[in-house]
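BUG-560 | component: ligand-complex export | severity: low

The export step for glycyl-adenosine-5'-phosphate jobs runs without errors, but we want the raw record kept on the ticket for reference. Input record follows.
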Amino acid sequence: MAEPKENVLMEKIVSLCKRRGFIFQSSEIYGGINGFWDYGPLGAELKRNVKELWWNTMTRQRDDVAGLEATIIMHPQIWKASGHVDTFSDPMVDCKTCKGRFRADQTNEIPCPQKPSKMVSECHGEKTAPRAFNLMFQTYVGPVRDESAIAYLRPETAQAIFAQFKNVLETSRQRVPFGIAQVGKAFRNEVTPRNFTFRSREFEQMELEFFIKPDEVVEAICGRVATAAEAFGVPPSGSPEPAKAGTPNSQPLGSAKRSGDGSTLNPQPNWGWEAWHKYWVEERIKFYEGIGLPRTTLEEYWQKPEELAHYARACVDILFKFPFGTQELEGIAARSDFDLSQHERFSGKPMGVFDEELRTAWAKLPKEKSDDLWRRYYENRKKYLFKMGVAEEAAARDAAEDANGLAKGQYIPHVIEPSAGVDRLILALITNAYSEVAETDNKGKTDTRVILKFHPRVAPVKAGVMPLLKNKPELVKKAMEVRDRLRPWMNVFYDDAGSIGRRYARQDEAGTPFCVTIDFDTLGEKPELKDTVTVRFRDDGRQERIAIGELLNWLLPKVR
Ligand code: GAP
């Protein structure tokens, strides 16, 4: 029997997460439930910060993205239209000896039921032939448990965005190109949840569906479509380039250079899907860098043509170097007009938009040009309809109708989808922040302590506030005043228990970037230091004296 594989770093991280209240096993008192995790006091703050930063970056700080918060259970036809009912499955085998059920591609190792971060060898009994197992959780709506009442817990947040596309368009006064963002729970009955929270059965997604004009429409309006290479001044990283040795098609970030002043990241009207796709890859990497994941911890993986979903034109996975391997953090897919088209066909409701600019431009096109664009649009639509099982004749007729719409300014938008998992990002942030320091005390005893070096923007607690001594009422009073000053603006933690060194160490382990100490100088023992505090930096122990009146303005730009 093969030796159980242990990942020492993961063991330490799982144990720290429990010990410090980041992540607990769900229903632990009943022995836990595989693939479900709860976030404790520090984890809940960390998660909230991550979701808020994503939301602010993707919606509030942009003019071209609106938000949505949809229900988890939706009309079951949504999942018929999206393809999830028919194709969202993993191949599974049953073991005739141990009666276990496993993913067909993972029959050698499974997560240990007692320690999910440890992989153990699985029974070598005879297996059945693989069968498709749908990953959606099923339930019933209403009191009757029959076929007509079946509903699903959403396996992704994206489909609600497509289903509400027209409502958002009409109420937000947006015009294509624009996006709809959503953060929320998703559920997948994963056959083998593994690697702590990495593959869970209940998790959260942060998804943007960014709607763009089809290339034929951009060409009709602008004369021609800028490629990603033109838009960014470099070839799109990955796609047409030869695969590197090792991980095929995978490359460290940074090889696709961005322009120094960032100006090429300003979207232009002549951008087609390629440039928009590249733009979102860059924006998302920038986001990760901005919350403390250095480029060296990330990789871009451009899916090879044979790996792409049939409707996708390109898909880039942003990978993170987890302790158990380099794995997907986020996928950024160019999904063509597949989703809106599917919902149009299944609901019978039009999902297209009207674009006056297109109508005007089309009327002015030379016939040769409009014929060429008509034909290309027609071919794409016909191909899609045919693939979806529409008979050839009907597909040709409907595609011609769609292409005729261009002259009237009508089309179905295409979409670029950056789709990130909250829980995977939390795990990436914790593993990236994890560091150990060995310290020897004055008795010669060496101890290892943990520092979580979170970026201050995501850190669960922004500042620890501490009176030097807890039995000096003047110090305590002043420290509470400082805490109350900061509290409306950020999460602070007041701590007066134990030696100041122990209190610093506790905050280091929680990832608190700054500790604010109120001492006798604060009270005026040295008159020139009256009403100042010591700010101690988590990562290097450096200390700085700051006036209480300036503390908030000093902290705010660092933690937001
Ligand atoms: N709408 C597209 C979509 O859902 P996906 O690649 O299946 O695409 C997107 O999921 C992201 O959601 C992944 O990159 C990952 O971060 C997260 N995710 C997917 N399945 C997950 C699971 N079982 N546990 C935790 N996160 C998951």
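Assignee comment: Attached the raw record above. Residues 367-387 form the longest helix (21 residues).
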